[in-house]
Amino acid sequence: MTPPDQPGDKAAAPGQPRFPGEFRLIPRIETYPAVLLFAQTLAGKLAIIGMFGVGLWGTHLSWPLLTRQSELRFDLLLITLITATTTLPQYRRLLLTFGTLVWTYAVWWQKVDHWLLFYPATLILGGALFWSAIRFRDSWFGRRPVASLLAAFALSVLFASYFPRSGALWITAWSFLVVFSSFLWFIGYSLLDRNSKGRDNFALQLGTYRPFWLGFYGSNIPYVKGAAYLRRIEAQNAEQLAISQIKGVKLFAWSVVLALALKAFTRVVHGYCGIPAYDDLFSQSVHRMPFPWYLGWASLIANFLETLLLVCIMGHRIVATCRMAGFQALRNTYRPLESRSIAEFWNRYFYYFKELLVDFFFYPTFMRYFKRWPRLRLLAATFAAACFGNVFFHFFRDMDYIRDMGFWKALAGFHVYIFYTIILATGIGVSQLRKRKVEKSNWLRGWLLPVLSVTGFYCILSIFDYTGRTYPIQEHFRFLAHILNLAS
After folding, report:
1. Which of 19, 99, 161, 409 lies at a 20 to 30 A Cα distance from 268?
2. Domain ranges of the chain
3. Residue 75: closest CA among 278, 267, 324
4. What predicted TM-score, i.e. pTM, was given to this entire model?
5. Environment class of residue 409 by beta-carbon count within 10 Å: exposed (0-12), middle (13-18) or buried (19+)?
């Protein structure tokens, strides 16, 4: 599960076919000397930020609790923060912390009332954990701070599920845990940075706690990881900043193209062709309403492609904003449909979520266990990340289920996704253990068939990519059997 330093940016290996043509819709203008020189001038910087601002304003995703005027104010706030990090590069990391704090208070308090109270408590606790991991390095917590953090959080959620409902203790505990769960993995990256050479102090670590480039998405996934990664990718001079911002505008433009493609795809597939949405067709299967098996395949494939496009659009916009702030972050999604193995697709599809699982689960397992058995060591680390870590993340991400259903009922209802991660980890593990020979072959055997096989695996597996608690696993198997024409 460990990608190269620049995943997706390297050229194909000799004898490895690539998609014919290598057509670029958006040219590599950051390599044009004239463009690069202009981008380093004051007029060029204003032009780049202006283009990004216009694109942001024109393509803003609607937010349920905000009016269009409120969205415009937040767009202006985001542009102001980007302008500050551009004009004052020597204070970029401090401005990142300031901007993140301002953005969090300006945006998220409108969504959750108790954020104003428990957000400072979360930051104080995060600072205490960071200080303790450095101060008491030889203690159990100091040696394994991330494992201690995750175990303590899981136990806290378990204990809170037994508190008397609707009481003051229950309300306070769950309000805090819901807020803290949003920062769990960001705090974890700070703890991983405790022993790094030249680590940042906590004032700079705060800038990585749900940074402002996450915008309105509210993702619990640390896009562009933590402080250690930011130190590596921060632009160090005017030329690097220009390249980063040009790439940011390009990536945002590409997200707009994908958004238009998604809109057109949805209209054609669900409007003109009349193919029902996957959730609706799955509900028909649950209620034993008949439909042709081929319609199930069409709906499943359409849903897989739509989900892929949504992940691309969201990730591209977040990373584009990060690049505009002066950090040369890698894309979150890079040509997953060109993947020729299951492990490669996993690396390309959702890079920062995969990195989270690698950093918190894969590496600790790989470095400690089964050192005498290399293949078992790799397989165990893969299961620790793609299976256990995947389940842990999604189970504690959806805190509402645990709060409303209770810990054990919520875990029992999560069995469909647990099965999904077992199959996923098995596929990735086998893909990694299998040594694929790089040999000269034609386009059909060397590219098309492997790509179709990998894409088909993930498309079929998406039937079980279900984090809800409504439908049991037998309904998912029944849907699979129906589209295979094995059941009516």
Report:
1. 19
2. 29-234, 247-483
3. 324
4. 0.90
5. middle
